[in-house]
Amino acid sequence: MRILIACECSGIVRDAFIQRGHDATSCDLKPTRRLGPHYQGDVRDILHMSWDMMIAHPVCKIMANSGVRWLHERPERWKLLEEGCAFFKLFIDAAHIPKRCVENSIMHGHARKLIGRKWDQIIQPWWFGAPFTKAAELHLIGLPKLPQERTKDSYDHIEPKCWKMAPSADREELRSNTEPEVARAMAEYWG
């Protein structure tokens, strides 16, 4: 399959699909942090191309439930919310790509209303072997839900990864990375 991994500079999801024999390309405004097929630029430049599947990770900080309070404290963020939701919908509406997943943090109600649809599945990294929480919404078109591989009983302790992450220059990027265990599950079940 020919797969576009949109809004990914880490190469984690791209490489999981490549390891399973797929022709996967990541795309981001930033350079890739791992060697591999990567388009550095605006995803709209290549979105129209012939892809069999797309997994998109648009920026979520404006749409995430965790930041909803900033909409009321910083009114300029409403315009950013509208722009972010329009960008998110670009992936949902890419009907020429038969299999699509748009992944994002848990959204607040204002974002959900602008997007006009609810998530299809909420997953946790611990489902797939990572010992921490980091809930993510999956908006699925033409793809089945990912099956939960593990239960909380499989772990002695599960940490909230993002909540405890220390401040740093690359904190936002680190928080946005898809966990390798989740990427492996996507490649295994959807590839």
Head-to-tail CA distance between termini: 8 Å
Mean pLDDT over all positions:
91
Structural class: alpha/beta
CATH superfamily: Vaccinia Virus protein VP39
Assembly form of the protein? single chain
**Biggest sheet, spatial arrangement of strands:** 3-2-1-4-5-8-6
User: Main beta sheet: strand number and arrangement?
Assistant: 7 strands, mixed
Brief characterization of the structure:
The protein has 191 residues and is of the alpha/beta class. It is built from six helices and nine strands, in the order βαβββααβαββββαα. The model has no long low-confidence stretch (mean pLDDT 91).
Report on this structure.
With 191 residues, this protein is of the alpha/beta class. The chain has a single domain, classed as 3-Layer(aba) Sandwich (Rossmann fold). 28% of the residues lie in helices and 19% in strands. The chain is built from six helices and nine strands, in the order βαβββααβαββββαα. It has helices at 12-19, 69-73, 77-92, 109-115, 171-176, 180-190, and strands at residues 2-6, 23-28, 38-40, 53-56, 99-104, 121-123, 132-133, 136-141, 159-160. α1 (12-19) packs across α6 and α3 packs across α4.
